[in-house]
């Protein structure tokens, strides 16, 4: 009987599959048709998406391929890939602009705000015993911000990232990649991913590393939040002291 694959085996297989597609992009004899097929496959995959971002960082993608990738990568199953992609690829249709002064004037509903937090924020943030410890702890967030400042932090997450929550992309010498928050830096580099998973990479195996200016916290429009949702959420968070 064949045993089920372990997570490390699954990850290794995904790396191998995406590296094969990356080689198509790096091969000067590959046709544009084959390259487009390769980037579309990679843009739909977590590992492939990380590789495409790495290639964009190194300016190894043509304008035509960037356009093709932009049509697909924002539907990537991995949130980190979707967010970091916005630095290098243009999201189709763009995003709506939210007005902080307008939202600040709205009367929030605390019960509705708690529900917004539970449904949209707990995958990364914790309040008391509710949520997870991937992003900053918010149990006493009301002590740190006034309303406009909190709205700005939510609507423009990349403008003021908390120390230790900067996003990094590491490329290994074998071409594989890992992304997440930098937890430890020494002989072994440790990254923490959005799902709480940890990647241990030997420093001697690293070919390059890139720190992103973009927060991996999604902007409200990407989460489907309306101005009223934000007013509700903000008023709820301001009670946490």
List the helices and strands and how they pair.
Elements lengths: L6 H20 L5 H12 L2 H12 L5 H8 L8 H7 L14 H5 L5 H12 L4 E2 L2 E2 L15 H9 L11 E6 L4 E8 L3 E5 L5 E5 L3 E6 L15 H11 L4
Antiparallel strand pairs: 1-2, 3-4, 3-7, 4-5, 5-6
Helix pairs in contact: 1-2, 1-3, 2-3, 3-5, 7-9
Task: Write up this protein.
The protein has about 240 residues and is α+β, with helices and mostly antiparallel strands. Among the domains are: about 5-85, no CATH class; about 100-160 and about 215-235, Sandwich (Immunoglobulin-like). It has helices at about 5-25, 30-45, 45-55, 65-70, 80-85, 100-105, 110-120, 145-155, 225-235, and strands spanning about 125, 130, 165-170, 175-185, 190, 200, 205-210. The protein has a five-stranded antiparallel sheet with strand order 6-5-4-3-7. Strands 1-2 form a two-stranded antiparallel ribbon. Strand 5 (about 190) and strand 6 (about 200) form a beta hairpin. It is globular, with a radius of gyration of 20 Å. Residues about 1-10 have low confidence and may be disordered.
């Amino acid at each position: 009987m064949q045993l089920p694959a372990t997570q490390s085996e699954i990850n290794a297989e995904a790396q191998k599959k995406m590296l094969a597609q990356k080689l198509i992009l790096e091969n000067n004899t590959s046709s544009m048709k084959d390259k487009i097929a390769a980037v579309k496959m990679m843009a739909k995959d977590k590992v492939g998406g990380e590789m495409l971002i790495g290639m964009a960082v190194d300016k190894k993608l043509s304008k035509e391929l960037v356009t093709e990738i932009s049509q697909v990568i924002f539907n990537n199953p991995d949130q980190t890939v979707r967010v970091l992609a916005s630095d290098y690829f243009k999201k189709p249709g763009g995003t709506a602009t939210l007005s902080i002064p307008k939202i600040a004037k709205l009367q929030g509903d605390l019960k509705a705000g708690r529900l917004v937090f539970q449904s949209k924020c707990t995958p990364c943030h914790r309040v008391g015993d509710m949520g997870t410890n991937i992003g900053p702890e918010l149990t006493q967030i009301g002590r740190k911000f006034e309303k406009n400042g909190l709205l700005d932090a939510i609507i423009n997450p990349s403008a003021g990232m908390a120390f230790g929550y900067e996003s990094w992309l590491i490329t290994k010498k074998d071409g594989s990649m890992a992304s997440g928050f930098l937890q430890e830096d020494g002989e072994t580099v440790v990254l923490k991913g959005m799902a709480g998973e940890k990647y241990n990479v030997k420093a001697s195996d690293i070919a390059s590393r890139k720190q992103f200016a973009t927060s991996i916290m999604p902007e409200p429009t990407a989460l489907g939040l309306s101005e009223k949702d934000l007013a509700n959420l903000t008023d709820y968070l301001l009670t946490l002291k």
